[in-house]
Amino acid sequence: MSYSPSIYKFIDGGDMPVAPDLELVLAVLEPHDVGDPQLAVGEDGSLRFWVRASDGSEAEISADEIGILVERS
């Protein structure tokens, strides 16, 4: 079984998500990426990481102008 939580950013009580700070997402996740570093940043500026935690569990994390998606199986 897998699950895919999404993370969105809202400002001033708005009902539409705003783009996350992709430079911040890159700075936080890049040190934990175990995938191909050349694939971390897509041509469209989206980010994709394969992250491995210290307990050996892994998740695919992607981020774009809409939000952040975590896919864990």
Name a few traits of the molecule.
4-stranded antiparallel sheet, alpha+beta, 4 strands, 73 residues
Give me the secondary-structure topology.
Blueprint (H helix, E strand, L loop, with lengths): L5 E2 L14 H8 L17 E6 L5 E6 L4 E4 L2
Antiparallel strand pairs: 1-4, 2-3, 3-4
Can you tell me about this structure?
- Helices cover 11% and strands 25% of the residues.
- It is built from 1 helix and 4 strands, in the order βαβββ.
- The protein has a 4-stranded antiparallel β-sheet with strand order 1-4-3-2, with helices on one face.
- The relative contact order is 0.27.
- The mean pLDDT is 90.
User: Nearest-angstrom radius of gyration?
Assistant: 13 Å
Average pLDDT: 90
**C-alpha termini separation:** 6 Å
Q: Mind summarizing the main beta sheet? A: 4 strands, antiparallel
- Quaternary organization: single chain
Structural class, from secondary structure content? alpha+beta
